[in-house]
């Protein structure tokens, strides 16, 4: 049994970071149910780790762990020949948009997800942190516990791969 202070600390961390971790997982999986399950797995690992997280940046620890949880999940899915984007919902388009604009938007979203799926999981994670979380290179490096130059190199290579494969998507990510 954990002391009351540990339970309270967990509840505080969960309340503070659950949406952030969920959104990160959703961007990786593009599936609400999987993102929710993986978020719960991440916080379960946090709870089980107890005091071993002490002295570390909790936010960095959560993102590193959530990425590992995603990779573990993705590897299991690959064994079953299922991609993390297979069950993705149709991309949303604003109701006020013209039907032609919606069609173009949906095609662009589908192509973007195909291109992201072709990237290595680590490169995909870095691009998602850059594009959706709007983190700086330094912040991404801190979250992933690596150097800023490693992040810059990964982004450069991922963009080159996307540009080579599709031509127009790399500039938008």
TrEMBL record:
Coiled coil: none
Keywords carried by this UniProt record: DNA-binding, Sigma factor, Transcription, Transcription regulation
Amino-acid biosynthesis as UniProt keyword: no
InterPro entries attached to this UniProt entry: RNA_pol_sigma-70-like, RNA_pol_sigma-70_dom, RNA_pol_sigma70_r2, RNA_pol_sigma70_r4_t2, RNA_pol_sigma_r2, RNA_pol_sigma_r3/r4-like, Tscrpt_reg_LuxR_C, WH-like_DNA-bd_sf
Domain HTH luxR-type: 112-173
PANTHER family listed in its UniProt record: ECF RNA POLYMERASE SIGMA FACTOR SIGL, RNA POLYMERASE ECF-TYPE SIGMA FACTO
Family note: Belongs to the sigma-70 factor family. ECF subfamily.
Name of this chain's protein: RNA polymerase sigma factor
């Amino acid at each position: 049994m954990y002391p009351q202070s540990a339970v309270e600390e967990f509840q505080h961390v969960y309340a503070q970071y659950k949406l952030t971790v969920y959104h990160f997982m959703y961007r990786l999986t593009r599936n609400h149910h999987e993102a929710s399950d993986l978020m719960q797995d991440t916080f379960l690992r946090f709870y089980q780790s107890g005091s071993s997280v002490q002295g570390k940046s909790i936010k960095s620890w959560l993102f590193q762990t959530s990425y590992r949880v995603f990779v573990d999940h993705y590897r299991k899915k690959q064994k079953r020949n299922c991609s993390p984007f297979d069950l993705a919902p149709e991309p949303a388009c604003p109701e006020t948009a013209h039907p032609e604009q919606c069609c173009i938007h949906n095609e662009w979203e589908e192509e973007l997800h195909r291109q992201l799926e072709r990237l290595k999981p680590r490169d995909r994670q870095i691009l998602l942190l850059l594009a959706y979380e709007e983190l700086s290179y330094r912040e991404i490096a801190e979250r992933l516990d690596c150097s800023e130059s490693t992040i810059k190199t990964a982004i450069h290579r991922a963009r080159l791969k996307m540009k080579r494969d599709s031509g127009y998507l790399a500039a938008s990510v």
